[in-house]
């Protein structure tokens, strides 16, 4: 166990809301945008597994065969859900693309290994059902924020069906992620997760590289804690060393929570990068 001072420091480092005083309003905006998106025609929810949370909210592209953006929500693996994660759906549809938000269940009801497995299976289901979703298996892109970035990164580093052969995604964007879980073990976040040292290492993307995608974007807001900044830099360097084509982006004026709002906006530095990747064949 770490000493009390170290625990207090780590608790603060994994409390990004202290640098985002308006985060309740941001979360409400995400929820409201998601509600609006789900009131549109074409919206549907599909189950990809036996657990009640294992479902995907899908918004089809205007034309069949268009690329699809998949989003994995954050929330310290224990808060929010896919129900508030479709805030970018209408932005992507406006640009001619499909969108899907993934549910995976939360701690303490689910363990971290179960969540990681769920996201991996969700991506496999989406690829296997690409035609049903109006896209193609080779034009599935994905993004994840915070805990969602961690879960997406683990899914990218896992390919149990055809190891090392077919990338599961055309591109991926990881936003403000945690890629080394050992520090998490010593914070309040672990009260729900219950990670031990072995599980923290086994489910740290930093130790599972390379990511199986041809293009990897790591993005964070200007206003992040030092730990999120450090983890992005270390993961980016390790991903490049492992052979991943990796780009890093810091979005001016953005924080840990409002960063995601620009995901599908071509006028936003983040959205511009994500949409450009989707348009690249």
UniProtKB/TrEMBL annotation:
Residues of the BD-FAE-like domain: 66-158
Pfam families: BD-FAE (PF20434)
InterPro entries named among the record's database cross-references: AB_hydrolase_fold, BD-FAE-like_dom, GDXG_lipolytic_enzyme
GO molecular function: hydrolase activity
Coiled coil ranges: none
UniProt entry keywords in alphabetical sequence: Hydrolase
Listed name of the protein: Alpha/beta hydrolase
Organism of derivation: Amycolatopsis albidoflavus
